Amino acid sequence: xxxxxxxxxxxxxxxxxxxxxxxxxxxxxxxxxxxxxxxxxxxxxxxxxxxxxxxxxxxxxxxxxxxxxxxxxxxxxxxxxxxxxxxxxxxxxxxxxxxxxxxxxxxxxxxxxxxxxxxxxxxxxxxxxxxxxxxxxxxxxxxxxxxxxxxxxxxxxxxxxxxxxxxxxxxxxxxxxxxxxxxxxxxxxxxxxxxxxxxxxxxxxxxxxxxxxxxxxxxxxxxxxxxxxxxxxxxxxxxxxxxxxxxxxxxxxxxxxxxxxxxxxxxxxxxxxxxxxxxxxxxxxxxxxxxxxxxxxxxxxxxxxxxxxxxxxxxxxxxxxxxxxxxxxxxxxxxxxxxxxxxxxxxxxxxxxxxxxxxx
Length: 360
Description:
Layout: E1 5-9, H1 14-25, E2 29-34, H2 39-45, E3 53-57, H3 67-70, E4 75-78, H4 89-109, E5 114-118, E6 132-135, H5 147-150, H6 156-177, E7 182-188, E8 190-192, H7 206-209, E9 224-225, E10 232-234, H8 235-245, E11 252-256, H9 263-273, E12 283-284, H10 297-303, H11 311-331, H12 336-341, H13 345-352, E13 356-359
């Protein structure tokens, strides 16, 4: 157990709430940063933890002065970045890269040595339909893209992917100049899993559920999902990894994925344990892939983690959570067809089935 103080940006989000929950479970104290209009509600949600949790406002993560937020902090976990489509291409690129560099620079200035940043599998490879991806992806792999090209792209998910790669590359350039800092980046695949109890999700608030909305595609009979070639990872495992990284020394780039499974396995399993959903399940096709695109073993070794959540547990918990959310939103008068079924991650999930995974 540790009583260290950890600063978490993006604590109100899907991943951030799980990270906070994990930190508190392990005995850490937490200081979370959220947009000013969210402070009161998030404070109320964490009030049960007393002085172990502080929630503060951040107006501008790109240029804002974070002196007060960083005072007394032992480690930083930086999660905040714009979701696809919440800004134009220029805004997404500036916020992701600028926000990351600003908090890291100010943390270094404040004498903080332990810095953990979430990146993405999107930073490891060019995710374009039909592309060939060498597997397993490792810490040496990069999505090579420039801001000049990315800013011209109309697809918000493509811009999001580019922003992750560009921001992480800029971070590692900074890390080279500061070998005294312990900097760890986690590059996870698509998240699956439930919502943390502390997360506030308003009816119709799709931005709050982030990539978890992709689970809704599992129970949409009008779509066909191919093999998710990049794989999934339980959001709770990702949170555990981010927390574990606050104890790791040195500088590490960690690709991270969960147990590999195919939709052709997952959907019959869901039907067997939740028969009421049988007629709602999406159709599934298989590319024949049997091995993960990312081997999590190196990351687990660095992080000192014993293993990963079994995929069946992750999938069932995720489906149960999204079905419960659907019920609550329907009761609140939300058009779930518009807010959940028409989600931008569907195109991404379909596109990943076109990737050619070349295992070495």
